[in-house]
Amino acid sequence: MKQQRNRTSRLVLSIAAIAGSAGILMCFLKNDREHPDTYSDTETPVVIGQPIAESTEKTAGYEEPLYDETEKSDTSASITEETFSIQETTRLQHLPAGEFAAAGRLADGWVHSLFFASPVDDTVSARINGRSYTENPNIRLSDLSYLKMLYYGFDGNTYIGEMIVNKKIESKVLEIFQTLYENEYPIEQMVLIDTYDADDTLSMEQNNTSAFNYRTIAGSSRLSNHSYGMAIDLNPKYNPYVKTASDGSIVCQPESGREYADRTKEFAGKIDETDLAYRLFTEAGFTWGGSWNSVKDYQHFEMADEG
After folding, report:
1. Is the pLDDT of residue 40 over 60?
2. For position 108, what pLDDT does the model report?
3. Which of 36, 41, 50, 231 could share a disulfide with 225, CB 3.0–4.6 Å?
4. Is residue 292 in some structural domain?
């Protein structure tokens, strides 16, 4: 009787085991039908000890980000650079003339905003009244423009320059001097002649490039074109005023420029008909004093005031 019960128990357990296995198989088949992509006959098996290759397929609902982290980083850097550029440009615009601006030459993208004109305001007026400007019937302060510009020094660095010219030629002058700067054309100095108490000789001795100065032509009662802001003297020491006197002697102004009166010599800053400054000024409609017959004013460029 006891043996019969044991056989019955073993039979029940065997049936239960078979039923359990069948249930598992049915669940597996059901899952395979509902999710046919879960397994594939062609799926590469995973080999223990080898790395699992990352899938390059996008899952459902995946969207590309609007920008990646690299792009975000580049954008931030660009904004920072732009902010710095604006701040540095503003700083340079407010530096006084004659100040060192930068080692070497500034990048072209910075240059245009550093060549600009403005009216002769109270600050500039206070500097020139009683010096290069006096009340007169020929020219008013409102006819003039104050220019701020860069210039490329003989030492290879960038400096802040200033000049007063007639409004009629301000745009041409700005364009000329910007082109000179971009081509690293050397200029010794560029401050208002009032820095030298409007003394033309002192200004020339310092090789100062300047324009407006209400004065007569030396040895004459006739007004110079500088009086109207229509003339510019460029690097006057290296490009002096030269005249042969009646006794055959050579008059040279400034006197310190006498060694540069011989125009057969070659030296930096020399203006002749092959020079960039000569070409730019004459193409813009200026006359060069170096082409005059009775005297040679190599520093001088002027434009006739046609009213």
Report:
1. no
2. 86
3. 231
4. yes
Select from 256, 87, 235 the least CA-distant residue to 161.
Answer: 235
**Which pLDDT does position 78 carry in this prediction?**
38
Do the domain assignments include residue 58? no
Q: List, in order, residues 6 or more apart from 103 with CB less than 8 Å away.
A: 157, 158
Q: Which domain covers residue 252, as residue numbers?
A: 84-302
Total number of domains constituting the chain: 1
Integer Cα distance of 95 and 116 in angstroms: 13
Q: CA-based Rg of the chain, rounded to a whole angstrom?
A: 42
Place of tokens 């070409």: 279
Using CA atoms, how far apart are residues 14 and 22, in angstroms rounded to an integer? 12
Q: Is residue 36 part of a domain?
A: no
DSSP letter for each residue of 202-266: HHHHTTB-B-----BPTTSSSBPGGGGT-EEE-STTTS-EEEE-TTSPEEEESGGGGGG--TTS-
**Based on the number of CB atoms within 10 Å of its own CB, is 116 exposed (0-12), middle (13-18) or buried (19 or more)?**
middle
pTM of the model: 0.73
Is the omega angle on the peptide bond into residue 36 within 30 degrees of 0, that is, cis? no
List all residues 6 or more positions away from 124 whose beta carbon is below 8 Å from its beta carbon: 146, 164
Residue pLDDT, tens place only, 249-273: 999 999 999 999 999 999 999 999 9
Does 66 reside within a domain? no
What's the rounded Cα separation, in Å, for the pair 204 and 236? 5
